[in-house]
Amino acid sequence: MTRSSLRSLPVLIGAFLVAALFAGSLPWLTGSDPARTVLRARQVERDADPAALEAIRQSLDLPENPLLGTWQWIVKAFRGDFGVSWVSGTPVAEKVGSSLLVSLNLSGMAAATTLALGFVCVGPMILSVGRGKGGTSRVLRVVSSVLAALPEFVLAVLLAFIFAVRLRWFPATGWQTGQHAVLPVAAISVASVGVLLRVLMTAVTAVADEDWVRTWRANGARPARISAEVARRALAVVLPQVFLLLAGIVGASVVVEDTFAIPGLGRTALNAALAQDVPVVQGAMAVLVLLGVVVGALGNLLHHWLMAPALGAGQGTALVRHVGTVRRGWGWWSCVALLVVLIVGGWFRSSAIDPLSRHQGPSWAHPLGADHVGRDVWARVGEGAWLTIGSAVALTLICLVIGLLVGLASREGSAGITDILNAIPSVFLGVVLAAALGPGMFSAWLAICIVGWIPLAVHARTLAAEARAAGFHQAAITSGATRWWITRRHILPSVFRPVLGHALVRLPHLALALTGLSFLGLGAGHDSPEWGKMLSDAVSHMEQAPWTVLFPALGLVLLGLVTNLARAE
To answer: Which of 38, 78, 393, 529: CA 20 to 30 A from 523?
Structure first.
């Protein structure tokens, strides 16, 4: 463990204790008796008489209150005893350990595939920087926007339907052979590479604007050497993001694991939380927290190792020397027009139920078709835009403000809390919060806000560290400038634009987080027109009425294109 990690050890312990207490309090927060929960899970037909409940309490040594239960669990955990499952009676360590190995394999392959795809796509851009040409690629921005806006669970269902059910090329469920990993890894990688592409492009553009690139080129350095150094510097910037992605995938790919029936840690944690199997929930959370700390520390170590030569030479990230002009071509305006038509056009249509129009395809009466109960899809998409886009914009602003504040204020020793929170997936938080506060949009919002700011804070912290290593920062300190003045006048302008671009590309990602929670029944309520809930309802009818999946997904893709193409060049 690094020295910075040791300095943040009290924060890590405190956050871990709070997380364990919250998970352990789940049955009491819902007002249910843990013994009654266990009895209902094991013997559905038996009456909950006092004798049966007392027998369960004695056999499992159930605590009388959440504080006592959490304390007993922590003491036993330090001895390697994580207890037994309240539902199955199997040891928690065995259950969580086996599912962790599955998730590590899945997340490792997905993260490696995502990074490889990202550098393959950005490779031509890096080579052009080495040759002295511009590094901006509009095509890559469009590709990253589309990929980042694809609903992960819809992509997983489509891959399973096409390549497993129809073509029979790969197995649809399970995790026994290498073939079982192809479709889930593809679903996660395709959905993740969009965000990584944008961060990579931003990093390459920032590195290409640094003074050392022009100096090397003027001194006759070979283009291949410049390109290699640009790639190394860009990798150093995005490496913490990749490791955060690795830690997050372990618990966050619940939908993919559930779609393909993969016995991973995320699916295990979700099922345990839904069944109020507290020992398994606590064990899964402990593993996720520890994994986040280890992976986050490893990412920071590799970042400093890759950046050591440049930081030692005072080659920090270049300042933004100009504001730039906003270039919005016909592609951006076309996406805006299509999104406006898709949304506004639905406002003037009726979403009344018409059983005679059930699964009716696009026609004059229903231009975008009808759903499984005969409601007009266009009207439903228009109504749901208020919930989906409005929520995504509000969540993005909240996460951007928090991410900038935390990232600029952070030092090397303050990374622990972000590693801990990132290790707990928003889906799992949504399950816990839904159990404590009740399912709904507020629980979904809170779950996303708790972890949504972390990638932005890590990105801001990385860029700020490089900016502080530049010569201007040392000169300002020597001249007597205060830390607040340097941050406001120099560091914030150099950090704000790339982090804002990152936040914009994450806007559809946050909308998809709401979509995933709604898919699991933790977000929008029953029959809500929110696009995520529409997609979750439509997936089971995809073969009979594919248009019910197409148009809400198209709205999310257009939202991603509009937000990502509207930026300063």
So the answer is: 38
Could you tell me which residues come within 8 angstroms of residue 213 by beta carbon, excluding any fewer than 6 positions away? 129, 207, 226, 230
pLDDT at 12: 55
Q: For residues 169 and 159, what is the distance between their CA atoms, to the nearest angstrom?
A: 11
Beta carbons of 559 and 392 less than 8 angstroms apart = yes
Strands (E), 225-292: none
In a 3-state reduction of DSSP, which class is residue 370?
strand
Q: Tell me the domain boundaries of the chain.
A: 1-81, 89-307, 329-568
E-strand spans in 388-475? Answer: none
Tell me what pLDDT residue 414 has: 47
Output b/e per residue, 440-472; b: 16+ Cβ within 10 A: bbebbbebbbbbbbbbbbbbbbbbbbbbbbbeb
The CATH number of domain 89-307 is 3.30.70.580: no
Looking at residue 42, what is its pLDDT? 65
Where are the extended beta strands (E) located within 208-268?
none
pLDDT number for residue 320: 37
CB 280 within 8 A of CB 95: yes
Rounded-to-integer distance, Cα 539 and Cα 516, Å: 12
Q: Could you tell me which of 248, 247, 267 has the C-alpha nearest to residue 98?
A: 267
Contact 353, 371 (CB under 8 A): no
How far is Cα 260 from Cα 109, in angstroms, rounded to an integer? Answer: 16
Closest-CA residue to 426 (of 320, 518, 492):
518
pLDDT of residue 4: 47
Give Rg (Cα) of the chain.
25
Give residue 562's pLDDT.
80
pLDDT at 313: 47
* CATH entry 2.60.40.10 includes domain 329-568: no
Q: What stretches in the chain show pLDDT beneath 50?
A: 1-7, 311, 313-326, 413-414, 568-569
Q: Do domains 89-307 and 329-568 have the same CATH topology?
A: yes
